[in-house]
Write a structure and sequence with these properties.
Aminopeptidase, GNAT family N-acetyltransferase, acyltransferase, alpha+beta, transferase
C-alpha cells in the first residue's frame, strides 16, 4: 500500500463534499447533518485549503482520492499552540490501513513544517477502529472526555490521543 498526501485541487471539491455531507459516505461517527456545499468552494478559493491556522490534504492511493486529513491550530497558552487533526477515509477505502498511514504522514508533515511540540486527535469512545488506527500510528491515549460531542441527538464521550515531537519515529516513512 502506497498512499500519499497532496494539496486539494478544484476537482476534489465534490469528493470532499461527499465525505462531509452524505450520510452513506461520512461514516457512522462523522455524520453531523447536511453541509453548505459553497463553504468548501469558498475556502478553496480563499487559500487552497492551506493556511497558517490549519488545512486539508487529500489522501491519495496511487493518485486516486481515498480520503482527506485536516488539522487546525489550537492555542495552548500565550506562548504556544498545538495542532488538532482528523481524517475521513472514503467508504470504499476503509479497513485497508489508509487512515493509519495518513495519520503518520500528516504528523510528520506537521512536525517538519511547524515548531509545535504536540499533535492531538480525538474520536468517539465507541469508534474502536479509529482508536486502533491512532495507536498504530504512534499516538498515546490520554483519557476519556465525558459528554464532549453532540451527534445524532445525543451527547457522546470521546477519547483524546496525542503525539509529542519526541514520540515521533526518527525515520520518515518511505
Amino acid at each position: 500500500m502506497m498512499i500519499s498526501l497532496r494539496p486539494v485541487n478544484e476537482g476534489d471539491l465534490s469528493f470532499l463534499y461527499r465525505l462531509i455531507s452524505e450520510p452513506d459516505s461520512t461514516g457512522e461517527f462523522q455524520w453531523y447533518g447536511f453541509q453548505n456545499p459553497r463553504t468548501l468552494r469558498d475556502r478553496w478559493e480563499e487559500n487552497g485549503m492551506l493556511g497558517d491556522d490549519g488545512g486539508i490534504l487529500i489522501i491519495a492511493n496511487d493518485g486516486d482520492e481515498a480520503g482527506f486529513v485536516s488539522w487546525r491550530k489550537e492555542v495552548a497558552n500565550r506562548a504556544s499552540y498545538f495542532w488538532s487533526m482528523g481524517l475521513i477515509v472514503a467508504p470504499e477505502h476503509r479497513g485497508k490501513g489508509y487512515g493509519t498511514q495518513a495519520q503518520k504522514l500528516l504528523v510528520r508533515y506537521l512536525f517538519d513544517h511547524s515548531t509545535v511540540n504536540r499533535v492531538e486527535a480525538s474520536t468517539e469512545i465507541t469508534n474502536l477502529a479509529e482508536q486502533r488506527a491512532l495507536e498504530k500510528a504512534g499516538f498515546t491515549r490520554e483519557g476519556v472526555l465525558r459528554g464532549v460531542g453532540f451527534r445524532a441527538g445525543e451527547w457522546r464521550d470521546g477519547v483524546l490521543y496525542s503525539m509529542l515531537r519526541s514520540d515521533l519515529d526518527p525515520t520518515p516513512e518511505a
